[in-house]
């Protein structure tokens, strides 16, 4: 088994939480910003740290699906790339994608869970329903995987096994787009194989997807990037920061991941990726905004998406601030 350096060994402060006139908390991690030519324009911590990209890898997985027979675009493809909130509009797209390929909810192999959206979860409880694979945030990806198996003539049984042809295809595409070999494999929260990569590799993959979408060259990366940029709500949901950033920045391709991971690519070729060491979500919008500003995005476009209030008795009493970037 290959042993990677400890993700904590070179971590540095990425954001500080200010409450009143004191710094209350500090979030450590790693961040990389790539220039349009692919070189490292800015790095804090270790830009080559090996990480679990979690759901930030979904657009890369979707590229593999398209290359092996999945033929969807628009909102359907955006849902394949999504960690959706489980709102009714998300579930309608997932069930429609399944039905179009002769599949049903019973074919989904992902872990049962409640919707991420609190209102959707409450409504489901009130209706007497429990956690389900359909309402788990990765059901769009799993529907896409099953549909790919149907298109490629592969068995749907065992589609989550790392030795299944679908998962072997995902490994190959991950290595290609990231430029980093997949050295570690485990199981993600949804039950699918989870592949390691480097932070710079993850940013490189998003740069490839975003620039292909900007060229609109008809390739699988282009189709993924265009679907995500055109359907921000389907990638996340109401009130989600990934949806806010995709809406705010034209041509942006961005995807959040569990345990403090984020990646984004710009149509002009720049890209960013980061890992928050404590796995928390609180600093992610601020860190993403600071990284995108260093990549050349107008900070004015990012202000609303990056807002992360620190409240006392329901009123703002502080702020989360990045330790790097134009405003640091």
CATH-defined topology of the domain at 12-69 and 162-322: Beta-lactamase
Global mean pLDDT: 96
Q: In CATH, what is the class of the domain at 12-69 and 162-322?
A: Alpha Beta
Total count of strands: 12
What shape does the CA trace take? globular
Beta-strand content: 15-25%
Helix content: 25-40%
What's the story with the biggest beta sheet? 8 strands, antiparallel
How many H/I helical runs?
A: 12
CATH architecture title of the domain at 12-69 and 162-322: 3-Layer(aba) Sandwich
Structural class, by secondary structure, is: alpha+beta
Layout of helices and strands:
Elements: E1 12-19, E2 22-34, E3 40-44, E4 50-51, H1 58-67, H2 74-80, H3 88-100, H4 118-126, H5 139-152, H6 165-178, E5 185-187, E6 193-195, E7 197-198, H7 199-215, H8 220-230, H9 232-235, H10 241-248, E8 253-257, E9 261-265, E10 271-276, H11 284-294, H12 299-306, E11 309-312, E12 315-322
Antiparallel strand pairs: 1-2, 1-12, 2-3, 2-10, 4-7, 5-6, 8-9, 9-10, 11-12
Helix pairs in contact: 1-5, 1-6, 1-8, 2-3, 2-5, 2-8, 3-5, 6-7, 7-8, 10-12, 11-12
Protein name: Asparaginase
InterPro entries: Asparaginase_II
């Amino acid at each position: 088994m290959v042993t990677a350096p400890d993700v904590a060994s070179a971590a540095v402060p990425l954001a500080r939480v200010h409450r009143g006139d004191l710094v209350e908390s500090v979030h450590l991690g790693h961040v990389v910003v790539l220039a349009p030519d692919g070189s490292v324009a800015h790095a804090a911590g270790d830009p080559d740290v090996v990480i679990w990209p979690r759901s930030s890898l979904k657009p890369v997985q979707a590229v593999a699906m398209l290359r092996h027979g999945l033929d969807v675009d628009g909102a359907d493809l955006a849902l394949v790339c999504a960690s959706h909130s489980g709102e009714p509009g998300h579930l309608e797209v997932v069930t429609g994608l399944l039905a179009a390929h002769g599949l049903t909810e019973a074919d989904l192999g992902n872990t049962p869970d409640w919707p991420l959206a609190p209102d959707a979860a409450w409504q489901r409880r009130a209706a007497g329903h429990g956690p389900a694979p359909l309402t788990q945030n990765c059901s769009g990806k799993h529907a896409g995987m099953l549909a790919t198996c149907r298109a490629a003539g592969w068995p749907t049984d065992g589609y989550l096994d790392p030795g299944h042809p679908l998962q072997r295809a995902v490994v190959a595409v991950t290595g290609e787009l990231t430029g980093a070999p997949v050295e570690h494999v485990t199981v993600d929260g949804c039950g699918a194989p989870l592949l390691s990569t480097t932070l710079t590799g993850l940013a490189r993959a998003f740069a490839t997807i975003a620039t292909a979408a900007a060229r609109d060259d008809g390739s699988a990366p282009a189709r993924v990037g265009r679907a995500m940029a055109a359907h921000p709500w389907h990638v996340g949901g109401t009130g989600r920061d990934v949806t806010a950033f995709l809406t705010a920045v034209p041509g942006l391709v961005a995807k959040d991941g569990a345990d403090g991971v984020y990646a984004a690519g710009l149509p002009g070729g720049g890209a960013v990726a980061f890992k928050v060491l404590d796995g928390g979500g609180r600093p992610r919008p601020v860190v993403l905004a600071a990284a995108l500003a260093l990549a050349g995005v107008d900070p004015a476009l990012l202000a609303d998406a990056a807002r992360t209030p620190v409240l006392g008795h329901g009123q703002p009493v502080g702020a989360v601030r990045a330790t790097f970037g134009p405003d640091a």
